Amino acid sequence: MNAASALTRFDITASLPAFDPVPAADGDTVQIDLDARSYPIRIGSGLLGQPETWDGLPKARQAVIVTNTTVQPLYAAQLEQALAPHYAQVRTVALPDGEQYKTWESLNQIFDALLGGQCDRKTVLFALGGGVVGDMTGFAAACYMRGVPFVQVPTTLLAQVDSSVGGKTAINHPLGKNMIGAFYQPRRVVCDMDTFATLPDRELSAGLAEVIKYGPIADMAFFEWLEQNMEKLRARDADALRVAVRRSCQIKAWVVGQDEQESGMRAILNYGHTFGHAIEAGLGFGTWLHGEAVGCGMVLATELSARLGLVDGAFVQRVRNLVQRAGLPVLAPQLEEDSPASASASASASASASASASASASASASASNGNGNGNGNGNGNGNGNGNGANAEAWLHHMRVDKKAEAGQIRFVVIAQPGEAALATAPDALVAEVIAAHSNPHACLMQR
Question: Which domains, and CATH codes, for the chain?
């Protein structure tokens, strides 16, 4: 096929700042430029507990911290104390922890607290946690009294480099991820690097998936730096993490500043996500972490790019190697079309095994600190064999992806290393891609 004629490329209207591999000594600020909705992303250590971090936010009588039951005992009291000089009343709402709770029921817990506390339309919401907390808090802020201000305080790597930035808010539906939501920008994003101290290894790896994606879609110099520094990132080297967070936020700010509501270029940020969202829906939300699904999805999307004649096999292998070195799955699981919530426990177990040094280490990390959902431990032995039934299940879930139009799946592909585009592909070719990266003996990657 003529791959080039099927590509949708995007016009670039702003310059991306050059990549700087040197961390700033006193922290960083990345600006999201959206006219009246512009806001800063503050990156540094010790920010969460400093009252001055919260200077200049909208004035209000009440502040409401939305968090989850895992993060609450770690950081809620610290944030409450820091906010006390700014607000007469600070209250906290703790939601259940995990992607499977990104639902109407959890959203209503936020509304119940706001209404029960007689919160007015000046009340400021603070999203303290990972991507699930941030998405639901933002959606609640967009809806409550038709819009109240909110602030993102991400405590996971994935949330700091991706979900807290750009104003996407949503909850899940059983038929698709993030299908019910709104574009609603925060007033500020505060990335306190100290919260990584309580991040389970599995969650750190999940966040690295969203870091990796920025290289193939926008910045191969950053990709090469990641290849050179992946071991430092997994070892939680503070300087390496600060560089990775800053560059990820710079690239996302650059994209969002050109296309706030995903009418065009912003779609490139979904590299790996069409395949990844199918994994999450097909296995049941929470079985694999979002970043685990995206990591595997990037391998599949790059393979599709190669089969469309856009990149060579060597580049596919580079992406696959980096994803694997991040502790992420690279093999496609078997999906169920009719009962996604009943996916086998072995798939969850295998996801943990791929993202942790050992099953017991992952279980211990999730139980002892603050941002994991503790789903993964054990050894998987599923049957991801890429057969026709499995491919049809994948296609079924991808057809409800937000980028699909009139039932036609649109994939983010790598037009060339450092540039992403949108493309369609025949179902048979997509099935070949899934089969090429499926394991006939296990649901997940071999380490």
Answer: 22-197 (3.40.50.1970), 201-235+271-337+388-446 (1.20.1090.10)
